[in-house]
Amino acid sequence: MSTAEVSNSSLAELVSLRGRRAVVTGGARGLGKAIASRLAEAGADLVIGDIEEGLAASTAGELAERYGVRALSTAMDVTDAASVADVAARAAAELGGLEIWVNNAGVFPAVPLLEMSEETWDQVFAVNARGTFVGAREAARQMAAGGKGGVIVNVVSTAGFRGSAPGLAAYVGSKHAVRGLTREMALELAPLGIRVLGVAPSFVPTEGNMLAAVAAGVDPDDMPPTDLMFTAPIGRGGVPDDIARIVLFCASDMSAFMTGSTLLADGGTMA
Ligand SMILES: NC(=O)c1ccc[n+]([C@@H]2O[C@H](COP(=O)([O-])OP(=O)(O)OC[C@H]3O[C@@H](n4cnc5c(N)ncnc54)[C@H](O)[C@@H]3O)[C@@H](O)[C@H]2O)c1
Hints:
By secondary structure, this protein is α/β, with parallel strands linked by helices. The chain has helices spanning 11-15, 30-41, 53-67, 81-95, 118-146, 169-189, 207-215, 226-229, 240-251; strands spanning 21-25, 45-50, 71-75, 100-103, 150-155, 194-201, 262-265. Strand 4, helix 5 (118-146) and strand 5 form a beta-alpha-beta unit. The site of nicotinamide-adenine-dinucleotide has 29 residues, from helix 2 and helix 7.
């Protein structure tokens, strides 16, 4: 069980995910790919689910070859509950079980509040908040059926703790929702041996947010944007693997006594 007392385990055993099965939503690129890479390196077999099917397939192929694990890929839209249920069922059936689910897929369009439509608001919430709820629900159903417990990790954001930048009202609202959901699901799923944790990154350059920054008017010659990158007290900008290692900690037995928390992965930005 993912909540078992593990103080007699060696460090190598604690961090190992060998024999565990994971799903990473939005795992084809960006933070999701970095997360999937560390989970695979730790020995997990996994499914990369992403709306970009071709990219998911190439990421899965890369990880299987590099780490010698089983890595499957599938088209997945986290706004479509049937699609999410299929991925959870497929992971359990084809990999033989499901113990780790990372709700990483997310969108972050920047639209000033006075111009923001209800459609934009609904779309952001459908992916970031409802997608996390549905993903967790389907994962928990499979984990409960498997009887071994499990861990659900939600990729939040420092925008789940405070306002972010102009234009991100829907994003900030959705990430606050995910942080609240993380706490509530932790209470409700603990009796099933399922832990729920959040990881909240500050700005990390990825394919997705570089495109979003340019769309929001940031100078393409100032990429990654210096004001976002170098204000962290830690003295450098974050990279995807900074976030992936913290997700690995959450997914592994290293964090067996934790549930409900959202860990800041922010170089001290929120300190
Ligand atoms: N990069 C950052 O600075 C940062 C900071 C805080 C939080 N986050 C969060 O991290 C997560 C990943 O962000 P990223 O920067 O890697 O973005 P990204 O755009 O590079 O990657 C997101 C992935 O999710 C996929 N995706 C989008 N909509 C989907 C859907 N409906 N169903 C399935 N997959 C879908 C995309 O195809 C893509 O592969 C998001 O939840 C984001 O809010 C990112």
